[in-house]
Amino acid sequence: MEIHRLSLTFPRFEQFVLADQIRRASKSIAFNIAEGYGRNDPLADFKRFIVMAQGSCNEVRCQLDYCKDLGYIDESDYAKYSEEYEIIGRMLTKMLQVWKK
Questions:
Q1: CATH number for position 46
Q2: Which of 21, 25, 50, 81 is 20 to 30 Å from 90 at the Cα level?
Q3: Residue range(s) defining the domain that contains residue 74
Q4: DSSP of 45-75, one letter per residue?
């Protein structure tokens, strides 16, 4: 939710491009986990959706680089969110490792 709120402060011309994309990617992480968990073949589908969630997490991390470089977020916000999404990425990797066993 913080990323969503933060993206609303981006310039108006970015609201339909970078801001929209980072909002969708950040939400996609949770949506993919929920969708994979609720499938009929939980193991196979869940693994696939965790991989997609990892992709969305990496997408957010890349978009944060752009946001910082374009001056839409300051260094402290960049450091905070980059660390949070790095932790989320590690959690997803661990989740996948556990489900692969």
A1: 1.20.1440.60
A2: 21
A3: 2-100
A4: HHHHHHHHHHHHHHHHHHHHHHHHHTTSS-H
